[in-house]
Amino acid sequence: MFCRIRSALFTAAFIALSVSQLGAQALQPAKIAIINAQKAVADTAEIKKAQATLEAKYKPRQQAIQNLQTQLESIGRQLNTPNLPPDREAQLRADAAQKQKELQRLSDDLNADVNYERQDILTRAGRQMTDVVKKIAEERGIDVVIDITNTIYFKPALDITADATAAYDKAYPAK
User: Fold this and answer.
1) Residues 64 and 79 in one domain
2) Total of domains in the chain
3) Which of 19, 42, 129, 138 is in the most buried spot, having the most CB atoms within 10 Å?
């Protein structure tokens, strides 16, 4: 009988200790941080360099588009001149139609190429930024990182955007 009482007391003490430990863990608030993920990625040296590279790479195509727009404006002015012979008007309208098709094709191709490259760069940088943010969270004991886009209010001290950008630049220096 003494063994049963001792066993019951031991079990009760163990349960009480376990419950108190669980209660202590449950009372600890989660450590939260806020990030503007889009800004964090956009502010990295790698993205700034990639943007400049894209602009330089596609500048000749943008200039070709601007030249076509200028030519179309010139044709439009010529079509508005008084007493334009019918054959000249027909030629100008044909030229305008051809240049308009060319302009549309060049614009569509340029947009598709730029968007493809930009998306490729941003996807890679987004994955890398996620890894950087996870590392920051682990180092600081942060339980949850929330993107600012879905946040109504937060204290500025919770914002780790600049820290994430700096850590990204350190981990992935622009080449």
Assistant:
1) yes
2) 2
3) 129
Cβ atoms < 10 Å from Cβ of 151:
14
Residues 110 and 121 in one domain: yes
87 and 15 within one domain: no
Angle, nearest 10°, between helix axes 86-140 and 45-79? 170
64 and 83, same structural domain? yes
What is the full per-residue pLDDT of the chain (175 aa) written as tens digits?
444 554 444 444 455 545 555 555 556 889 999 999 999 999 999 999 999 999 999 999 999 999 999 999 999 999 898 888 999 999 999 999 999 999 999 999 999 999 999 999 999 999 999 999 999 999 999 999 999 988 899 999 999 999 999 999 999 998 8
- The per-type count for the chain, helices as H runs and strands as E runs, is 5, 2
Cα–Cα dist 72/95, whole Å? 9
Question: Tokens representing 103?
Answer: 């302009």
151's CB contacts (< 8 A; 6+ apart) are 34
Tell me, yes or no, whether 78 and 146 share the same domain.
yes
Q: With H, G, I as helix, E, B as strand and everything else as coil, classify residue 159.
A: strand
